[in-house]
Amino acid sequence: HVQLVESGGGSVQPGGSLRLSCVASGYTYCMKWFRQAPGKEREGVAAIAGSDDRTWYGDSVEGRFTISKDDAKNTLYLQLNSLKTEDTAMYYCAAGTFRGQGTQVTVSS
User: b/e string for 59-82 if b means 16 or more Cβ within 10 A?
Assistant: First the structure.
């Protein structure tokens, strides 16, 4: 069983930045972030492999978001830069079939 706890969400203006964190308890291999906005489908944001740290990004965030992890702290990060209003959503971290409770990101002027 894996428990995931996200933090770091908030409200920012367009162009701003946030850093999301996800603390994991239990073994994790490939971890990812996804987001879901009201009335929209779930969207994969980024993923990172456990073995070689290879990363993947969704087209809408490529070049603006950065996924990373600190294995010593069992923590996954997502750096969000150049935020846009369309980035507003609940952001979740996930590992296998487990996911956290989410952290809200709101981008508005």
Answer: eebeeebbbebeeeeebbbbebee
